[in-house]
Amino acid sequence: MGGRRLLAKMAEAVVLVLLCFFIFGPITGLVLWSVALRWYWPHTLPQEVGMDYWLQALGLRKSLAIGAVSITDSFNTSLVIALIVVVAVMIIATPVGYVLAKYSIPFKSAILLLFLMPQAFPQQPVFVNLLLIFSKAGLAGTVTGVLLVHLMVCLVFAVWITSAAFKSVPPELEEASRSIGASGLRTFVRITLPLAAPGLLASAVFVFLTSLDEFTGTFFIGLPFVTTLPMMLYSFSGYNLQFASVIALVLLVPSILFMVIIERFLKAEYIGGIGV
Amino acid sequence: MRSGSSVANAKSMERKGRGGWLLPFLLLLPAIGLMLALYAYPFASSIYRSFLSSEGTLTLANYAKVRELYLRDVLFSLEVSLLSTAIAAVLSIALAAYLRLASGSIVRLVGAIYRFPIFIPFVVVAQMMGTFLAPHGLLNIFLAQIGLVNLEAPLQLLNWKGLTFGFVWKQAPFMTLIVLSGFGMVDDTYIEAARSVGARLPQVIVRILVPMSRATIAVALILAFTSTVGTFTLPYMLIGGKIPTTLTVDIAHRVTYFGDYGVANALGTLAYLMVIFTAVYYLRYTVRRGIYEYQER
Question: Which position among A59, A157, A215, B246 has the lowest Cβ density within 10 Å, counted as fewest Cβ atoms?
Answer without folding.
Answer: A59
